[in-house]
Amino acid sequence: MNRWVEAARPRTLPLALASILLGNLIALSEGHFSPQIAILAISTTLFLQILSNFANDLGDTLNGIDNQERKVAQRTVQTGKVTIPEMKKAVIILGILSFISGILLIYKSLQNTSFQEIIIFLLLGLLAILAAITYTIGKKPYGYAGLGDLSVFLFFGWVGTCGSYYLQSRIIDYSIFLPASSVGFLSVAVLNLNNLRDIDNDKINGKFSIPVRIGKEKGFLYQKSLYLLAIIFSTIFLGDTTKLNPYSAGIFLIGIFPLLFIYTKLKSNLSSEEIDPYLKKTALSTLWFIILLGISLQLTK
């Protein structure tokens, strides 16, 4: 069991929950909330994140990215703790679990709705499963072309937040894209830290992540801009005259501090070993930021 827990990468799971929690908390602040929908959305997201981690573990080993040169954050297939056939089966199982959970979520959320809405969310779910698998698996994994940032932004930001908000409220509110973008930026920040940590090995083995393309120094500038954009977009959302009051603003500021602390600590001369702890710190700080943003919204009514 320990090897599968390691392969699931528990430190990535808080980040996966951030967008779902935010969408549900915004809906709750507006008087729309079903515990059953929230639970199904959380379970679907966790299955998708673990699926992505398993597929990434398998794909990077098959493509030679995870090799003997990788010394930091070694993977389970790379080290032989999980065999390739075992991980292939695990990817299939997690894909099935993600699909079943997603179907149950759609069934519970979209009763008495149009067929078109059901098809849209079904396609989004299938795309999420496909994106989780093809990030590193296949003849041309899109993650190796530097497109992982865009995928993470869309699915961990817009789809997760706006989708969960709509499933709870059945309301289309374009202002939700502001906080959804904040979650997306912070999710990309975790991915970019991962790529900054692995930049040397990725460069040698043909994985053209954003840091590989623009260099380590500019990669850190990109990293810091992601933190700032996340704070700016959420501030604009919360700063709406119908949402802002001293109490919500104070709680929101407390949520920002951990991100600003990480911002000040990241420098381009950090080694891979020194960068690695900031992945977990950023993931947890993102979850903290989202929870406090959600709490601040509850105080606006």
Automatic annotation (TrEMBL):
Pathway: Quinol/quinone metabolism; menaquinone biosynthesis; menaquinol from 1,4-dihydroxy-2-naphthoate: step 1/2. It comes from the Bacteria. The keyword Transmembrane applies. One of its GO terms (molecular function) is 1,4-dihydroxy-2-naphthoate polyprenyltransferase activity. GO terms for biological process: menaquinone biosynthetic process; vitamin K biosynthetic process. InterPro entries: MenA (IPR004657), UbiA_prenyltransferase (IPR000537), UbiA_sf (IPR044878), UBIAD1 (IPR026046). GO terms for cellular component: plasma membrane. Belongs to the MenA family. Type 1 subfamily. It catalyses: an all-trans-polyprenyl diphosphate + 1,4-dihydroxy-2-naphthoate + H(+) = a 2-demethylmenaquinol + CO2 + diphosphate. The gene is menA. It holds the Pfam family UbiA. This is 1,4-dihydroxy-2-naphthoate octaprenyltransferase.
